[in-house]
Amino acid sequence: MPEYKLTILPEGRTIRVPAGQTVLEALRGAELAPDAPCGGRGACGKCGVLLDGREVLACQTAVDRDLTITRKPAARAEILTQAARAQTQPDGENRYALAFDIGTTTVVAYLLDGVTGALLAADSALNPQTAFGADVISRIEYVMKHGPAEMQGAILGAMAALTRKTAEAAGIAPQEITLAAVVGNTAMHHLFLGIDPRPLTVPPYMPRVSEAMVVPAEGLVPIAPGAAVRVLPNIAGFVGADTVGCLLAARFDRIPGTALLIDIGTNGEMALTANGRRAACSTAAGPAFEGAKIRCGMRGAAGAIDHVRVEDGRLVCSVLGGGKARGLCGSGLLDAVNALLETGMLAPGGRLLAGEGEKARWTKTDGLDAVILQDEVVLTQKDIREVQLAKAAIRAGIELLAKRLGADVESIETVYLAGAFGNYLSPASACAIGMIPPCLLPKITPVGNAAGEGARLAALSGAEFRYAGRLAAGTEFLELASMPEFQDCYVDCLGFGEEEDDE
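The structure corresponding to this sequence follows.
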């Protein structure tokens, strides 16, 4: 098979590419791939590169001659590393320890003093697996077709880079680190360890490995010879070790009364403790709040509209870093929907009411009604539907968890919002559009990267690691899709507010 030269700018790298391979596939191999939320199917339009002076989709462009392409500059995303701290007594068995939170979208590393528990350095990166798709199903499908090596190699490379960077920041060698602890959702857990993820795609959607594991670090994390990695347990197919990390950080079994924990990311995981029981579920919220499937969606980085408010009947946008708006991140998306409802530009059933409100903001995009938020950033009717699907899944999960444990939603005394999206969103907007029951608004507390905090605790103490195992074992799993009432509840939650759909 003939090969061609692909020159990649602005890096100035030249690689040999087999004829017929797509530019996206070539960039993946060079570890320079752009995001491809749809997995390279040409549906999301977000893997654009410049070729011959025009933008083309990398996933739809075959290398059929010597080519020179220019990658668009990527703004550094704001990745949440902070969390509400839980106190623990380090066991002092490791002078230095690492904790990793492997998210679907981001990876965070914490380097710790194993004796005092002090945080010595923290760093983060985007998960390079996003080049294979924004959601875990796209990545699992890729592994099923091409094998696990490429996907596992991508995450291990990111973790190795973070290990080196945190060690350098702390003034130590990576070989001085003698333990690591890892959390991640069930799919990230399997892809990190090279475990076959196929059971997650077929009923009953359970993980191949659920229990907590202690495995050699060699081949996974470049730390001391003979070092070990503690991998927190999974609860179910889509309630993974990251949720267990959140439960550990919150001391969830010790909370008096009724409490709800929600981690809204590419998936929406939640847990409820009530009436002496504990249950968890996962909702198919989709990656809309991470910027995927939203026309102008992007992560929280410079140029993202992160908040929208109404002043004197007009929409006013806040842009991260100031300057021209480049896109819309999750917190801005939530606010924008709420603002459109408030100004009468959006019906409670989810239909944009073209011509209402600020007349100059209305436009058409691909034949769809759309609202111009700022500069060239628009919100389309299709985007609104994606928000409806995501928020309905989360709300249905809350309602059915409460029903499972015999509790009224109104009786929930505390709501912990975990994760980056939960940290930055406006609780008022989340409640106003019905994603979270409005009665819970005064009870909401953001807790930051609780999953990462759970990993930190497990890295510092063997007792905490064992406690995580008990928390997972004592948490019931609620499979929403198998509940006869799920579909009706989900449909009831699609509207914004309490009104019936107007269409």
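Residues 366 and 380 are 9 Å apart (CA to CA).
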